[in-house]
Write a structure and sequence with these properties.
Radius of gyration: 22 Å
Strand order of the largest sheet: 3-4-5-6
Largest sheet: 4 strands, mixed
Number of helices: 9
CATH architecture of the largest domain: 3-Layer(aba) Sandwich
Structural class: alpha+beta
Mean pLDDT: 91
Low-confidence stretches: none
């Protein structure tokens, strides 16, 4: 899309459904190719939505992975647009300037990084999340814009909060990165075949002696089942990604660890 924003372009975006829908039908307002955020950008197929997510920074990526892992999160909508008339009204009440698009006088369509749907006491509830590096929270203008978001969601009756890098565990993130592509929704293969292998694989893991390392178990399982060398690593990641096996996600996933030190009962 053209990077120069106009009222006509905003109207086209709305008519094309950007910023609307849920689940696989949702269209983020901002896409990676357009995003102005600093940092590494990612396009990633989601477990919960089965669509490509548009993540504009490394911190957004890490936050997204944590949301993917949470069982109570059932939908994730990133780059969610806020209604301009409401954000402008809030900015006026606060006595602060509403952001405009560069080289224009057009009020920007503000977005919240994530609008998630969670299951809470058997009810589906919306929660809004802004993602910011902690150093950004020391800037007055950033705090003004976050306050607009906070008031916006408060008026909608929706909880809003901020996630910084201090809320993200590096090892936890690394572990999810290593298994994310192995979730059943992301794999294009014969699931009946891999599930059939996974059942004895998981059973053997839970029955192995406390002193056996993961690698020792992998080697034995491959030999006894005539599998290619290294295939057990993929099986293990598949089992963890689909939560057939529960591990301590805050420990590094090292295969020289004893099974009892990593697998949770």
């Amino acid at each position: 899309m053209n990077s120069v924003w106009s009222e006509e372009k905003i109207e086209r975006q709305i008519k094309k459904g950007y910023g609307s829908g849920t689940g696989s039908e949702y269209k983020p307002w901002i896409h990676v190719m357009e995003g102005g955020s600093l940092g590494v950008k990612h396009r990633l197929n989601g477990w919960k939505t089965n669509r490509i997510h548009q993540l504009l920074s490394k911190l957004e990526y890490s936050t997204f992975l944590a949301l993917e892992w949470c069982d109570y999160v059932v939908d994730i909508r990133e780059q969610y647009p806020l209604e301009r008339n409401k954000t402008q009204e809030i900015a006026n009440r606060m006595g602060v300037n509403h952001s405009i698009y560069p080289t224009t006088n057009i009020p920007i369509v503000m977005t919240t990084d994530f609008l998630i749907t969670v299951n809470e006491n058997d009810k589906k509830i919306l929660k809004a999340i802004s993602v910011k590096p902690s150093e950004e929270l020391e800037k007055p203008r950033v705090l003004e814009k976050l306050e607009i978001e906070k008031q916006y969601w408060s008026e909608q009756g929706i909880d809003w909060g901020i996630v910084t890098e201090k809320d993200i565990n590096k090892i936890f993130t690394e572990n999810i990165v290593s298994i994310h592509q192995f979730n059943s929704s992301a794999l294009e293969l014969d699931h009946s075949y891999i599930d059939r292998i996974t059942i004895p694989f998981v059973k053997g893991l839970t029955e192995s002696g406390s002193e056996v390392t993961l690698q020792e178990y992998f080697d034995t399982f491959e030999r006894e089942n005539n599998l290619d060398t290294g295939s057990s690593i993929s099986l293990f990641r598949y089992a963890v990604a689909n939560k057939f096996v529960k591990i301590d996600m805050w420990q590094k996933m090292r295969f020289n660890k004893r099974i009892s030190d990593l697998i949770l009962n």
